[in-house]
Amino acid sequence: MAQKQNSVPLSAIYKAKELLESVIEPTPIERSRNISARTGVDIFLKCENLNRAGSFKIRGAYNRIARLSDQEKSKGIVASSAGNHAQGVALAAQLLGISATIFMPEGASVPKVLATEAYGAEVRQEGRTIDESLQYAQKFGHETGAVLIHPFDHPDIVAGQGTCGLEILEQCPEVKTIVVSLGGGGLLAGIATAVKSTHPHVRIIGVQAEQAAAYPSSIIRGHPVSLEKMTTMADGIAVGCPGKVPFEIIRAHVDDIVTVSENNLSTAMLFILERSKMVVEPAGAAAVAYLLNNTQIDGPAVAVLSGGNVDPVLLMRILRHGMTAAGRYMQLWVKVPDMPGNLAGLLTDIAALDANVLEVEHTRIGSELLVDEVEINIEIETKGFQHRKEVLRVLREKGYKVTVKSPHLE
């Protein structure tokens, strides 16, 4: 067991740091006044979303690929990823002059696919999930001799990601808690190794999306356990089975593993965009999602914003989801008699409540509609849960038959 726990020594992380000095600059760390005010302790954001290729992945990818032998490099490399690892590998391969083939899931974000291709890699979209794409990549490697660059399950990958932990210690030497998003485990394992080796008192917390959380059950059973299914907006941490290398490190050195809901993730993305003026992807917001809902944190604390590569179309949907979760957006169905002036009256009543109407749609045919009724589908922007409740209360008091699309948020 001890040998597995020390499979990535601190010296390997320092060597990776030296190797990366000519490739990347330390990413900034910024104090978040708003999250600090909510938690009562100093909260800092480690902005890996501002790293080259938009995430921390370049750290591990470059460290792994640069250490290949000349013979291995001549065969080229292959990888599997939903986007961030793909871009990190593609950029590293471009910098090192090596051919790269990247297998991405069929539903991978279009901007991530285009960005990966822009770095010179050949992209093949195979499989419905990261795990299925990885099987295609492994098959390709066996057939061609290309070296598989695993997204998290290799000591050199973990060592490269660990350089983020070294930077945190340099930039925030008084840190007491570090919160990190968790998928396969490469970033969390690297940071835990870098930090715990010299600062064992620092608390390390890993955060998974609750609908794609393979680590809690794996830790209980003592070995990596695959999930049967996953459903989450956080594709960057939607990994069905922990990696063997990071798993042993995380089990030995990480203090706690927690989960956050989809509402937590979208609300955190909206919060980071509005308050910190930064764009992050759902996986990149996981650490902040935890902090926004847990005030019992020893500070100073650092939340790692692991990535910022998000499809603009997906971003619009997620932000609307976040606004709904924050009580600032709702969709209503309102039944009224099909008479002239009723729509205008409804809009006037909503305007009087200082709510902003975004979209309106009429439906005159439906199994639950009477022949003289019309259903108005209306999307409204509100100011928060209290305002939302007030709008619903007044409309119902005025006699409107109102149905809320997300009744659990009433």
Automatic annotation (TrEMBL):
A Pfam family recorded for this sequence: PALP
GO annotation (BP), single: isoleucine biosynthetic process
Catalyzed reaction equations: L-serine = pyruvate + NH4(+)
Keyword Nucleotide-binding included in the entry's annotation: no
Molecular function per GO: L-serine ammonia-lyase activity; pyridoxal phosphate binding; threonine deaminase activity
Keywords linked to the UniProt accession: Lyase, Pyridoxal phosphate
Cofactors named for this entry: pyridoxal 5'-phosphate
EC number: 4.3.1.19
Residue ranges occupied by any ACT domain in the UniProt entry: 331-410
Family of the protein in this entry: Belongs to the serine/threonine dehydratase family.
PANTHER family listed in its UniProt record: L-THREONINE DEHYDRATASE CATABOLIC TDCB, THREONINE DEHYDRATASE, MITOCHONDRIAL-RELATED
Protein name as catalogued: Threonine ammonia-lyase
Species: Membranihabitans marinus
Lineage: Bacteria, Pseudomonadati, Bacteroidota, Saprospiria, Saprospirales
